[in-house]
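Q: I have 184 residues here and want to know how they pack in 3D. Can you give me a structure?
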Amino acid sequence: MGKSIVLRNPVLVRWLERFANGTETAVFKKGMELYRNKRIWDYHASAKGIRASLEDRDSSFFQVTVRWDTPFASDRLRSDTTPDPAEMHVHCTCHNRRMPCEHVAAAVIYWVITIDRKEKRRNPRAVPDFSETDYQEKIEAFKARSASIPPSYAVFRPEHLKIRPDLQKKFTEISERVMEMMRD
């Protein structure tokens, strides 16, 4: 399995989760694969939707159109301004009768990541906000795990290091003094 998608904007994360939940899992995974393999050749997004040309795994090209009724302004991302995934009108020139197909999924994933990258350029953050639940969960897991593991200096054994024999004895003496100072 390939890498997961990393989005910084929580509104886009929730939106993509809603889209994925309304899409068959196998179809969404194939869409992810198409996105990861850079199969989107021509892409245009506007306030009313997306148009894209995609190359399938067997080198066939398909045209995707995704349209929503309410215009969407990507520069004002809020959960109440994003289009409802359940109310999107989708079309693909592939022969799949069930929509959204993998080509639509790939175009939508590309669209979400493109918006997230633009958002990142507008609002660069080195560390996510503390309000982001995923970040909070990771910090709590890190704290719990680090509390149960002794610090590295407590388990350090200089005799396990392989260095030049003529330096081993001197290095061991120095490291033991440093370790004693750290333990005190």
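Q: Anything worth noting?
A: Residues 10-122 form one domain. The radius of gyration is 25 Å.
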